[in-house]
């Protein structure tokens, strides 16, 4: 009876089950990590459990918003989150502290740290999906001018807030915005010339950098890398030449050691003996691979795969293009975030301050992702109710 009143049957069972397992994995390995290393009196595992309770409440709330309501709220949510980025940039350190050279968080009494760039990702997905949806309704015929007009609209609303996030600095988050936008644009039949230009420019840029690195590496080290911010220089140099830059590659080297010594089945809970900075946050996968081994790490990756497949499936079945765009943006954004985090943990990609979704300790990343999954469930229930008012969903 209570379930019917709360409409729990409308929650997507597969997503809830996957989130439940990821919640358990997150709390378990955060607890194990804090038991192995001294973090003072802070109980990160307990705090993560509280974060998950709040996250499920947010998911439940946003699941009740239908797509029309989301379209209506997209602009207010965009302006609110964009304004928060502006305030963060000019706020004094008393409320926006500089942590390890980055100014990304508001420090709010009782609530803790809030990272506005995480919530702006929700705004990016909602507002770009809205712009694409409305543009395609007004411009039924395909044209180069129409496609460039759409891209121009997106740049106008995204460029300045993204630059603010980049200046924090948070290059990884800007990258997630970009891939979310690319995924949504990929769902639209853009003119072949626009697609060609969009593919050739980044390919040419990457090819040029790789060519210069192979032929004239001194040009990369002496002329290009010094133009980056200090923390970016350290991470790239440490990644390109870890043996010759032990200080810059310390975190990555320790992470690789932790993963490598985990073996097939791991060292067991609380058995991790390799010190890795931020092991309970962005490097939580190092703890999973060390203590749970290759098998546990593979299971975690499988859970992520199933979650992303479910999001894509919901987007494909949606009878509303707006919902399809949202699911596409979230699916690719999550995929890139997972690949980047695990890639940096295993030394295959440069280190970035980017969380592993649903596993890394912290509230902002978890809350934003739970809100997005609530929105995905809204997409699912929208197409589930389209036939004769039936509440049957698949």
UniProtKB/TrEMBL annotation:
The keyword Transmembrane applies. It is a multi-pass membrane protein. Pfam families: FTSW_RODA_SPOVE. It is found in: Membrane. One of its GO terms (molecular function) is lipid-linked peptidoglycan transporter activity. GO terms for biological process: cell division; regulation of cell shape. The chain crosses the membrane at residues 14-37, 49-65, 77-99, 148-166, 172-188, 195-215, 283-309, 321-342, 354-376. GO terms for cellular component: cell division site; plasma membrane. Keywords: Cell cycle, Cell division, Cell shape, Membrane, Transmembrane, Transmembrane helix. The keyword Transmembrane applies. PANTHER family: CELL CYCLE PROTEIN (PTHR30474), PEPTIDOGLYCAN GLYCOSYLTRANSFERASE MRDB (PTHR30474:SF1). This is Cell division protein FtsW, lipid II flippase. It comes from Terribacillus aidingensis.
């Amino acid at each position: 009876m209570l379930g019917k009143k709360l409409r729990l049957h409308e929650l997507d069972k597969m997503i809830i089950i996957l989130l439940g397992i990821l919640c358990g994995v997150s709390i378990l390995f955060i607890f194990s990590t804090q038991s192995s290393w001294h973090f003072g009196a802070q109980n990160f595992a307990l705090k993560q459990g509280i974060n998950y309770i709040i996250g499920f409440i947010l998911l439940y709330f946003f699941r009740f918003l239908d797509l029309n309501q989301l379209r209506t709220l997209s602009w207010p949510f965009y302006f609110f989150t964009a304004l928060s980025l502006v305030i963060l940039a000019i706020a004094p350190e008393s409320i926006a502290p500089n942590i390890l050279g980055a100014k990304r968080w508001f420090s709010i009494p009782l609530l803790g740290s809030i990272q506005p760039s995480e919530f702006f990702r929700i705004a990016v997905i909602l507002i770009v999906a809205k712009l694409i949806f409305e543009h395609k309704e007004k411009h039924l015929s395909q044209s180069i001018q129409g496609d460039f007009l759409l891209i121009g609209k997106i740049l106008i609303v995204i460029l300045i807030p993204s630059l603010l996030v980049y200046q924090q600095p948070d290059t990884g988050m800007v990258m997630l915005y970009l891939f979310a936008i690319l995924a949504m644009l990929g769902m639209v039949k853009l003119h072949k010339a626009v697609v060609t230009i969009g593919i050739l420019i980044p390919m040419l840029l990457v090819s040029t950098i790789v060519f210069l690195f192979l032929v004239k590496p001194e040009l990369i080290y002496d002329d290009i890398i010094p133009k980056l911010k200090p923390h970016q220089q350290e991470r790239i140099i440490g990644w390109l030449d870890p043996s010759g830059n032990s200080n810059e590659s310390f975190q990555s080297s320790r992470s690789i050691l932790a993963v490598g010594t985990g073996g097939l089945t791991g060292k067991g809970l609380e058995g991790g003996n390799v010190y890795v900075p931020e092991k309970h946050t962005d490097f939580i996968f190092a703890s999973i691979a060390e203590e749970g081994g290759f098998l546990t790490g593979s299971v975690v990756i499988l859970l992520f795969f199933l979650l992303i497949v479910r999001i894509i499936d919901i987007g494909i079945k949606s009878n509303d293009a707006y919902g399809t765009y949202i699911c596409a943006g979230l699916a690719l954004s999550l995929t890139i975030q997972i690949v980047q985090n695990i890639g940096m943990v295993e030394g295959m990609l440069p280190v970035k301050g980017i969380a592993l979704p649903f596993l890394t300790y912290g509230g902002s990343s978890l809350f934003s992702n739970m809100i997005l999954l609530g929105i995905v469930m809204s997409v699912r229930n929208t197409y589930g109710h389209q036939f004769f008012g039936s509440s049957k969903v698949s």
